[in-house]
């Protein structure tokens, strides 16, 4: 029994070795066709990388813009700090609220003077008034997570319109910020949907390119395939070399794409980082293994599956 198992293992090993060798021979023999296929897949992978880069940068920009948009609650001048802190605690308890910052009347005045320090007329007018005309306020950051939605802001604004707060609250500036919030929400949704659609389109194009490339290779081998089928060769025996060839396209394309991506980052990362809110070079180094794995995975899937479906044209399976 053990002898039979050893014979079976040797046959499987020999068959696998033959398939890999034949696939490599196909890849090398059709050098120009292989080169064309690899280059097309490289362009596809670089296009997907570009799309991921745009998505990464847009998410970073949106995240920074989200942090700059808040709801400010201005209290009446006779509102005590105790009452204001009670409102703050009620807000913090809401799931829609990320954090709440209290700004006293004195702090509000200092902030105002700092913003308008280049306007002496305005600062002199404040000094002439004597009393502080500004009121205490709360700056509220909404908990929008990764999906920027206006619902959180609307929920917070509605919460502050309760009767129990009307005697304390002078104004809620949500309506003033509503247009900016809605625009940011729309940009976020459009960017994510457009990125998803473009990724799918690029994946389909890459699959079709690899599919037709493998078919061209098999067309040049159509007589050999017919002979192998006539003598009773198994589907694996026929399909194997073309699967290996397709996988080799993906592997080499992924390798070239990573090299090109590395060179581009070395040349332009500092310039991009100067105008974009992200250090691409640091991000690439921190996620190098993940990026490399994704490139090889996409390349192998595109090449392997495309060749698998392309060979079915010549096999009745």
From TrEMBL:
Signal peptide: none
Keywords for this protein: Cell cycle, Cell division, Cell membrane, Membrane, Transmembrane, Transmembrane helix
GO BP term (any one): cell division
Domain ABC3 transporter permease C-terminal: 197-316
TM stretches of this protein: 32-57, 194-214, 247-268, 288-311
Membrane topology, record value: Multi-pass membrane protein
Compartments where found: Cell membrane
Pfam families (UniProt xref): FtsX, FtsX_ECD
InterPro entries, A to Z: ABC3_permease_C (IPR003838), FtsX (IPR004513), FtsX_ECD (IPR040690)
Record-annotated FtsX extracellular domain positions: 70-150
A cellular-component GO term for this protein: plasma membrane
Family affiliation: Belongs to the ABC-4 integral membrane protein family. FtsX subfamily.
The protein, known as: Cell division protein FtsX
Organism: Candidatus Portnoybacteria bacterium CG10_big_fil_rev_8_21_14_0_10_36_7
Organism phylogeny: Bacteria, Candidatus Portnoyibacteriota
């Amino acid at each position: 029994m053990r002898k039979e198992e050893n014979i079976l293992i040797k046959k499987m090993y020999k068959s696998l070795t033959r398939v890999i060798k034949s696939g490599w021979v196909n890849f090398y023999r059709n050098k120009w066709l292989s080169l064309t296929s690899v280059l097309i897949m490289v362009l596809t992978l670089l296009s997907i990388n570009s799309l991921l880069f745009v998505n990464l940068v847009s998410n970073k920009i949106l995240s920074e813009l989200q942090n700059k948009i808040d709801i400010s609650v201005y209290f009446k001048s006779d509102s005590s700090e105790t009452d204001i802190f009670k409102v703050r605690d009620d807000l913090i308890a809401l799931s829609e609220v990320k954090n709440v910052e209290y700004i006293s009347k004195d702090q509000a005045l200092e902030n105002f003077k700092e913003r308008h320090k280049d306007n002496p007329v305005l600062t002199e007018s404040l000094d002439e008034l004597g009393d502080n005309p500004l009121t205490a306020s709360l700056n509220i950051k909404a908990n929008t997570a990764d999906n920027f939605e206006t619902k959180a802001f609307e929920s917070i604004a509605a919460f502050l319109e309760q009767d129990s707060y009307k005697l304390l609250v002078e104004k809620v500036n949500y309506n003033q910020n509503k247009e900016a919030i809605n625009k940011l929400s729309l940009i976020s949704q459009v960017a994510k949907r457009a990125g998803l659609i473009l990724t799918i389109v690029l994946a389909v194009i890459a699959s079709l390119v690899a599919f037709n490339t493998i078919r061209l290779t098999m067309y040049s081998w159509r007589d050999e395939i017919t002979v192998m089928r006539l003598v009773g060769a198994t589907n694996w025996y026929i399909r194997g070399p073309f699967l290996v060839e397709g996988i080799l396209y993906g592997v080499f394309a992924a390798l070239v794409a990573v090299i090109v991506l590395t060179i581009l980052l070395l040349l332009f990362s500092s310039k991009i980082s100067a105008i974009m809110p992200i250090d691409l070079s640091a991000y690439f180094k921190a996620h190098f293994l993940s990026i490399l794995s994704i490139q090889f995975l996409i390349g192998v899937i595109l090449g392997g599956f495309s060749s698998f479906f392309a060979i079915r044209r010549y096999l009745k399976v």
